[in-house]
C-alpha cells in the first residue's frame, strides 16, 4: 500500500508539470492612431505646399529657392562676396518680421540676439539663418511642421500655421572656443 501511494504521488507530480502557456492579451493595439495621424499630416502638408506654390506663382518677380530643409526663400538683399556664415556657437544679431501666408502680420519687426544652435529657435528659422551672411535680407516661407507645428508658440501663432519670415542678419560674432 505504501508503494502504491508513492507511485500515485510520483505519477501525479509527473503528469501535473507542463510547460507554461502564453496568455491571450486582453486588448490588442492596432496602430491605427499612428496611421490616421500620418495620413492627416500628409494631407496638411500637401495643402500647405499648394498654398505656398500659389504664393510663389503669384510673385514671379522673386527668385524662390527651395532649401534642403523643406522651406523656400528669396533674397531681398544678397551679399555676393564669400563672407562668414553662422556656425555652431556663434552669436548672431538679426531682425525679423513674422506673418501668415495671407500676409497678416503676427509679429512686427523684432531684434533678436541668438547663440547659434545653443538656444531655442524654431527649426526653419534656425536652418534659414545658417544660409545667411551679414547684412543680407531674406524672406523665408516655412511650412508649419518646421515652424511652430502643432503646438504653436502659446501666444500669437496657432496650431499648424505656415509662416513668412522676413529676416535681416545684422552681425555675426564668431565663437572662438
UniProtKB/TrEMBL annotation:
Keyword Glycoprotein listed: no
Catalytic activity: [protein]-peptidylproline (omega=180) = [protein]-peptidylproline (omega=0)
EC class of the enzyme, as a word: isomerase
EC number: 5.2.1.8
Keywords recorded for this protein, A-Z: Isomerase, Rotamase
Gene3D superfamilies, alphabetized: 3.10.50.40
Ranges where the PPIase FKBP-type domain occurs: 89-173
Segments traversing the membrane: none
NCBIfam families registered for this protein in UniProt: ppisom_GldI
Protein family membership: Belongs to the FKBP-type PPIase family.
Name recorded for this polypeptide: Peptidyl-prolyl cis-trans isomerase
Source species: Winogradskyella alexanderae
Record lineage: Bacteria, Pseudomonadati, Bacteroidota, Flavobacteriia, Flavobacteriales
